Fold this sequence. Notes:
The chain has about 250 residues and is of the alpha/beta class. The chain is about 45% helix and about 10% strand. α12 links the parallel β7 and β8 (about 235).
Amino acid sequence: xxxxxxxxxxxxxxxxxxxxxxxxxxxxxxxxxxxxxxxxxxxxxxxxxxxxxxxxxxxxxxxxxxxxxxxxxxxxxxxxxxxxxxxxxxxxxxxxxxxxxxxxxxxxxxxxxxxxxxxxxxxxxxxxxxxxxxxxxxxxxxxxxxxxxxxxxxxxxxxxxxxxxxxxxxxxxxxxxxxxxxxxxxxxxxxxxxxxxxxxxxxxxxxxxxxxxxxxxxxxxxxxxxxxxxxxxxxxxxxxxxxxxx
Length: 246
């Protein structure tokens, strides 16, 4: 199968190692992976701010770059959900509809398409998982705790098979970190307090690392951790799944 690697602009600019880890991991799992060099922002920041009508250029460019692949895979639940729900092109709507169904978040692709149950790796650290809202409530990567239903988590399923990892169970498994894209700018004080509360749960469990499927949420938490001079670090799940010993 051919995979087009969709890397969010903030990952490309600030966390290129996450993109590299995603590429290497997919290759290890037997995929033919290409990174379209002309890809740009998917348009999510504009859409979240009420300017979806200005994202037509982003949509056109996305279709131009990714239409030839069997699957489109991205290490970001929020960007994937945006494409799934908002990719349109009035001149190529049938193609856009097909592509909306073919874009996947990384752990979703590994578990649901590749049907991989475990990945060989070694990460001898105590780790807490942050369940990002877009991934959990939009892509259904994990079960919401308020529902009277069996709990599941695709990211946790993969991480639990990594050698030497000590995966903790948090007191509030699916609480928002407060990032919310432009929300952290327009409601800075509320956003920071939510992030501090999210970190406190991990601190109480004595974690070494906070991981997740969205580097944007982890970026928000990392900023708070550094300001608090906390020893806790953040790491994207792709880096753990692709790692030997870190």
